[in-house]
From TrEMBL:
<dbReference type="InterPro" id="IPR016160">
    <property type="entry name" value="Ald_DH_CS_CYS"/>
</dbReference>
<comment type="similarity">
    <text>Belongs to the aldehyde dehydrogenase family.</text>
</comment>
<keyword id="KW-0560">Oxidoreductase</keyword>
<dbReference type="InterPro" id="IPR016162">
    <property type="entry name" value="Ald_DH_N"/>
</dbReference>
<dbReference type="InterPro" id="IPR016161">
    <property type="entry name" value="Ald_DH/histidinol_DH"/>
</dbReference>
<feature type="domain" description="Aldehyde dehydrogenase">
    <location>
        <begin position="15"/>
        <end position="474"/>
    </location>
</feature>
<dbReference type="InterPro" id="IPR015590">
    <property type="entry name" value="Aldehyde_DH_dom"/>
</dbReference>
<protein>
    <submittedName>
        <fullName>Aldehyde dehydrogenase family protein</fullName>
    </submittedName>
</protein>
<feature type="active site">
    <location>
        <position position="245"/>
    </location>
</feature>
<dbReference type="Pfam" id="PF00171">
    <property type="entry name" value="Aldedh"/>
</dbReference>
<dbReference type="InterPro" id="IPR016163">
    <property type="entry name" value="Ald_DH_C"/>
</dbReference>
<dbReference type="GO" id="GO:0016620">
    <property type="term" value="F:oxidoreductase activity, acting on the aldehyde or oxo group of donors, NAD or NADP as acceptor"/>
</dbReference>
<dbReference type="InterPro" id="IPR029510">
    <property type="entry name" value="Ald_DH_CS_GLU"/>
</dbReference>
């Protein structure tokens, strides 16, 4: 049984959850304790008690802990990557890549702990000095989704600790294994008791207590729009700071002048890698008339060569969907698109087992053509390997279609035209814009986040993370 970490102690829960491998549902990854409300309160109280000393710890102390954690994650990339692929279902290379990203994030924020700066500004009044400094926010509650079991916890935990906050992490109930490993690594890296607490369990119980508890000063959340709206309402009601990263319906524009190979490689990666389960995935391909038929033919050709199989099997391009519920959602959207009159060009077939006969949640990547912007498949996030093509007259229409969504996380374009690339970068209504690159798969040291219904609050990652995990103080001194 893998236990929760509360005030430096491993604590059993009143219940347990079974972590199941989506590539082989006979394979039990492990049993993980589920905290209840009382244990969540104990974790929050521990974080509160530990905050004072940690908020005043030297930058060198914070650097040492984060650097040690990053070094261990990187050294254990193969083992942690295997666990991640086993519990979540992304392919082994993708999973190892995610672990490396998590390790690099800890290393990056170790450095940021040393670089917390301030400003000295002359006052408008004679003899007065003004200093602007950053202080930690306090106890932060981190609520994370299942699709990046180690990278998303890492990019919330590392800046929180680097800037002197104490932490209570609630990972997604579906994938507690990678988060448990992170907790174990942080404990052994020398964090004082109570500075980092892990409370695995249900969102409706553990997550809800984090939102309601007045001892939690800030909440950083990644997940669905529906839960994000609850987080916002709860935090506004009690004046807590909050940050939300939610869904996307990310477009990828392909212009007549695009390099076809570049366009297809980027579209396939964006839409189908990690089984399409990325908030940055592009699920709308907006293709201008002159290249449309060639592009669709090349996509179908490439997609039929993709191997859908066990995530840990060498040669697998696309692993299983994360669980039965998500698979049902993907299949429902495929049925909706067909009923709305879209043409299924290829894929969309649920496979009951891997090539070795292991029962799992396999789905061949689906491409719809002949779709119109108003169809639900082009408006709502599916969160699976399901992509649609919309035909556009020219660049201007393609840009308008790309922006015609309530979301604004990531957007991309394939073009060889400097003029169009430059115009697109300026006029795309999204937080992240990619030219001749997949919309998904971002760097770990630069800001991450979106606009419109995708995100709320300051950006995550890079030096911009300081905006959420610190609060600014302006101090005046009369000499
Ligand atoms: N943008 C993104 O990165 C992601 C988007 N999604 C989208 O969301 C859909 C559903 O996925 P799902 O994992 O259920 O997303 P949720 O938003 O339900 O889950 C995200 C996190 O919030 C927690 N949570 C759930 N309910 C509450 C609550 N009432 N109070 C506080 N925390 C809560 C979850 O806990 P627990 O899981 O333990 O219930 C999980 O840790 C997907 O199909 C996809 O469309 C999903 C994942 C990531
Ligand atoms: O595309 C990426 O690299 C990150 C995606 C992500 O953060 C998400 O899907 O939640």
């Amino acid at each position: 049984m893998f236990k929760n970490l509360i005030n430096g102690e491993w604590v059993d829960g009143p219940r347990a959850s079974r972590n199941i491998n989506p590539s082989d549902t006979r394979d039990l990854v492990g049993e993980y304790a589920q905290a209840d409300v009382a244990q969540t309160r104990a974790a929050i109280a521990a974080a509160r008690a530990a905050f004072g000393a940690w908020s005043l710890a030297t930058p060198q102390r914070r650097f040492d802990v984060l650097d040690a954690a990053g070094a261990e994650i990187l050294a254990r990339r193969a083992e942690l990557g295997d666990l991640l692929a086993r519990e979540e279902g992304k392919t082994l290379p993708e999973a190892i890549g995610e672990v490396v990203r998590a390790g690099n994030i800890f290393k990056f924020f170790a450095g940021e702990a040393l670089r917390v700066g301030g400003e000295v500004i002359p006052s408008v009044r004679p003899g007065v000095g003004v200093e602007v400094t950053r202080e930690p926010v306090g106890v932060v509650g981190l609520i994370t989704p299942w699709n990046f079991p180690i990278a998303i916890p890492a990019w919330k935990i590392a800046p929180a600790l680097a800037f002197g906050n104490s932490v209570v992490l609630k990972p997604a109930d579906l994938v507690p294994g990678s988060a448990w490993q992170l907790a174990d690594i942080l404990k052994r890296a020398g964090l004082p008791d109570g500075v980092f607490n892990l409370v695995m369990g249900r969102g409706s119980e553990v997550g809800a207590e984090l939102l309601e508890n007045r001892q939690v000063d800030a909440i950083s959340f990644t997940g669905s729009v529906a839960t994000g709206q609850r987080v916002a309402a709860a935090c506004v009601a009690r004046g807590a700071k909050f940050q939300l990263e939610m869904g996307g319906k990310n477009p990828f524009v392909v212009l007549d002048d695009a390099d076809l190979d570049v366009a297809v490689a980027a579209a396939v990666n964006s839409g189908f890698f990690s089984t399409g389960q990325r908030c940055t995935a592009s699920s709308r391909l907006i293709v201008t008339e002159g290249i449309h038929d060639r592009f669709v033919a090349a996509m179908v050709d490439r997609m039929t060569s993709l191997r859908v199989d066990d995530a840990r099997q060498a040669g697998t391009d696309i692993g299983p969907v994360v669980d039965e519920r998500q698979l049902a959602q993907d299949l429902e959207y495929i049925a909706i698109a067909r009923a709305e009159g879209a043409t299924l060009a290829v894929g969309g077939e649920a496979l009951p087992a891997s090539s070795a006969g292991a029962p799992g949640f396999y789905l061949t990547p689906a491409l719809f053509t002949g779709t119109s912007p108003a169809m639900r498949i082009n408006q709502e996030e599916v969160f699976g390997p399901v992509v649609s093509v919309i035909k556009a007259k020219d660049y201007d229409e393609a840009l308008a279609l790309a922006n015609d969504t309530p979301f604004g996380l990531a957007t991309g374009i394939a073009t060889t035209s400097l003029k169009h690339a430059t115009h697109f970068k300026r006029h795309a209504q999204a937080g992240m814009v990619m030219v001749n690159l997949p919309t998904a798969g971002v760097d770990y040291h630069v800001p991450f986040g979106g606009r419109k219904a995708s995100s709320h609050g300051p950006r995550e990652q890079g030096k911009y993370a300081a905006e959420f995990y610190t609060t600014v103080k302006t101090a005046y001194t009369q000499a």
